[in-house]
Amino acid sequence: MDLRGKKLGLLISTSPENPNFQRGLRLAEAALDKGVDVYLYCIDEAVRGIGDSRLQSLSARGLKFYACAYGVQRRDLPVNDQAVFAGLTVVSDLIASTDRFLSFN
């Protein structure tokens, strides 16, 4: 099955140490390898992984990477160019506009 042009939305809410954070990244990587447009939103504890080298590598490969601006602010983390910082409206848009949407909690 040709998956090129399909859209996958991912939401990760767990800390980078949690196995589900890594599972989300592996799924994003596999989908990018198949030509899928991948949109990833980090919220809650996942914002602590914004600088994760694997996540940044996926972003360089075409991952559309968003992070919760409120979550970053609440954790006193820096706002920088490693992600697009946005609110929950973006999550709603991703749910509505992707072919599949999965959450890793």
Would you give an account of this structure?
With 105 residues, this protein is of the alpha/beta class. The protein has one domain: DsrEFH-like (Hypothetical Protein Ychn, Chain: A). The protein is 37% helix and 24% strand. It has 4 helices and 5 strands, in the order βαβαβαβαβ. It has helices at 19-33, 53-60, 69-74, 88-97, and strands at residues 7-12, 37-42, 64-68, 84-86, 100-104. Strands 4-3-2-1-5 form a 5-stranded parallel beta sheet, sandwiched between helices. Strand 2, helix 2 (53-60) and strand 3 (64-68) form a beta-alpha-beta unit. The radius of gyration is 13 Å and the shape is globular. The N and C termini lie far apart (29 Å).
Quickly describe the structure.
By secondary structure, this protein is α/β, with parallel strands linked by helices. The protein has 4 helices and 5 strands; from the N terminus they run βαβαβαβαβ. The chain has a single domain (7-104), classed as 3-Layer(aba) Sandwich (Hypothetical Protein Ychn, Chain: A), CATH 3.40.1260.10.
Q: Which key features would you list for this structure?
A:
105 residues; Hypothetical Protein Ychn, Chain: A; five-stranded parallel sheet; 5 strands; globular
Using the CA coordinates, give the radius of gyration. Answer: 13 Å
CATH class: Alpha Beta
Summed over residues and divided by their number, the pLDDT gives a mean of 97
Percent of sequence in beta strands: 15-25%
What name does CATH use for the topology? Hypothetical Protein Ychn, Chain: A
Q: CATH homologous superfamily?
A: DsrEFH-like
Give the uncertain stretches in residue-range form. none
Instruction: Work out the count of structural domains.
Output: 1
| Distance from first to last alpha carbon | 29 Å
Number of helices: 4
Quantity of strands, as a count: 5
The main sheet orders its strands as 4-3-2-1-5
- CATH arch. level architecture: 3-Layer(aba) Sandwich
Shape: globular
